[in-house]
Amino acid sequence: MKRITIYLAALVFLFSGFFLLSSPVLSARAPRKPVAGVIITGQNNHNWPVSSEALKRTLENSGLFKMDVAVSPKEGGDMSGFSVDFSRYSFVVLDYNGDSWPEEMQEAFLKFVTRGGGVIVYHAADNAFPQWNAYNHIIALGGWGGRDEHSGPYVYWKDGALVKDNAPGRGGSHGSRHAYVLNCRDSRHPVVKGLPERWKHAEDELYDRMRGPGEIKDLLYTAYSSEERGGSGREEPMVFTVKYGRGRIFHTVLGHAGATLENNPAMQCAGFQTLILRGAEWCARGRVSQKVPEDFPTETTVSMRPDYK
Ligand code: ZN
């Protein structure tokens, strides 16, 4: 009798082990929870309803991110009630160029970044807040809004190095929109690793003569701003990172918003979208797990994702 009991116990043990191992809940790898981020928008000298929706679709269609959109009051409106609970997010996308945030929100944002929060500075967000010193250190380079030699040096690429030029003059301008080639300056960085050294971006503005504190950590891409197009004649920084406290900042000047989601070439560019997705993961997590997409542009051919996926 005792021997039978031992056999039964052994059998039950083996079976339970078998079921535990074959259980799909335990054996299948649980899908990763999307990373939470927030897009701050609502005031911009650009078409922010289009840009914020294009950014949200690009990020969420990847399945990697879940985005909230924080829309500020209209320009000149009462900003006192505008706030974002940064503690809910791993990263923030700045699509805002307008009235000052309430002091409490400014402080909460700085706390978020200093403690390691991720930030994407997108296009005209680097036009914002010319008088907010900490913000200008976070973006490193800015333009317009009265920026000049008091804002910091011009920063551009010359003879294989990043140059800081204290010449007086306005900060921020651009020539006529066109498709142009981006030149990689740091192929080992996680955001650009595996991407082509040179690739053609769809029709967009090419920001030039940007200036500011200029504390660029990793310069990822530059582009040549030709004088024929009304540009500076310099190789201008287009995509770079900044470190602020423990925070990782991914700054892209690319992505001028079009008239509609359908007519929005700079943001429909597969290269732009890839950089937003990789930049988001990098600033939120400090690494990039995404593969190089097959539809990435080449040096001579632009590549479009009209549906933001
Ligand atoms: Zn623009």
Explained architecture:
- There is one protein chain.
- The chain has one domain (34-285): Class I glutamine amidotransferase (GATase) domain (Rossmann fold).
- 25% of the residues lie in helices and 25% in strands.
- It has seven helices and 13 strands.
- A hairpin with a 2-residue loop joins strand 12 (234-244) and strand 13 (247-252).
- It binds zinc ion.
Fold blueprint:
Blueprint: H1 2-22, H2 24-27, E1 35-41, H3 48-61, E2 65-71, E3 91-94, H4 103-114, E4 118-122, H5 133-139, E5 154-158, E6 161-165, E7 173-174, E8 178-184, E9 198-204, E10 207-208, E11 218-225, E12 234-244, E13 247-252, H6 265-268, H7 270-285
The structure holds zinc ion.
Residues 46, 123-124, 205, 256 line the site of zinc ion.
